[in-house]
Amino acid sequence: MRDREALVRVVRTCGDGAAQAGGLWGPIPARSAPFGWGPAGREETEPTRTGSGLAGLRYGDATPAQNGGSRLNAAEVSERGVLGDRPYALVDAETGKVVSAKEPRKWAKLFEFRASFVEPPLPGERLPHVRITFPDGRSLTTAERGLDEAFSDVVGRRVAFATVAPDKPSLEEYWPDIEGLTYRETVTDEAMPEGTFFDLGLVHVLTTATLERLRELHPQGRYEARRFRPNIVVDCTGDAGFVENDWVGRTLAIGDTVRLRVTGSCPRCVMTTLPQGDLPKDTGILRAAAQHNDANVGVYASVEQVGPIRRGDSVRLL
Length: 318
Fold this sequence. Notes:
By secondary structure, the chain is mostly beta strands. It has helices spanning 104-107, 147-155, 208-217, 225-228, 283-293, and strands at residues 4-5, 18-20, 23-26, 35-36, 54-58, 70-71, 74-78, 81-82, 89-92, 114-117, 130-133, 139-141, 159-162, 170-175, 186-191, 203-207, 232-234, 251-254, 258-267, 296-305, 307-310, 314-317. The longest helix has 11 residues, at 283-293.
């Protein structure tokens, strides 16, 4: 990948099971996680592209509402990923598992919630509370009483809002009947990184080249970054194919400070096929990735060097 100007769009601070700005699906407040997403930094109403570069997204809580998170002009990257990503989650009171839309037959209501921090999180400070907007339009903050009961009433199971991850967190994942997936038409228990609400990796990086290649393979599908809930989107205009595959084991330099070590590909799940906001249900989304890229869309990265990232920062492969 040549040196590029990057657009940073931080969306939510959580994983496929937390509550994040824009929706819940797992961790809460930002990104694709069990229940945690939340905005961090200065929000933007519409993403802008200036040449080729990087667009970053951040998710917060992991499960309540996860319709793409919140777009930001700037964000802080900490040792645990984008600041505010997946700090909270919903936990199933019966099983002790992190609630995640990866099992949509049990947690279908999650995409109907929305979540956002009441104020931007700041480095070195305690994370602010999250405001949860319910499907009927009412809202509660995580500082108010009755949150667990309100969630439980809507999702139809007894759940609890968690601010601390279990030592050995796990979630349930439904595998649809799609050729190329590891399993088909079954549910598995998936371990999560110890003491976190992340699915697998701390930072999810996706390129515009991968989105464009998937559009070519499945032209009827709407391949938008928000469907995949990445933390960072790199504009690779001029490159073709699944370019991130060649980044594994390399380091990404973003701006003057941040360094991310690409640790592996990002396997995708049934959540990418589900309706999210105005994005329709489409099993072809996952089928194209499964049949042409081992079901991977983007890569995961760990943090080698912390610091701020901003829209317009350069992205270099070291």
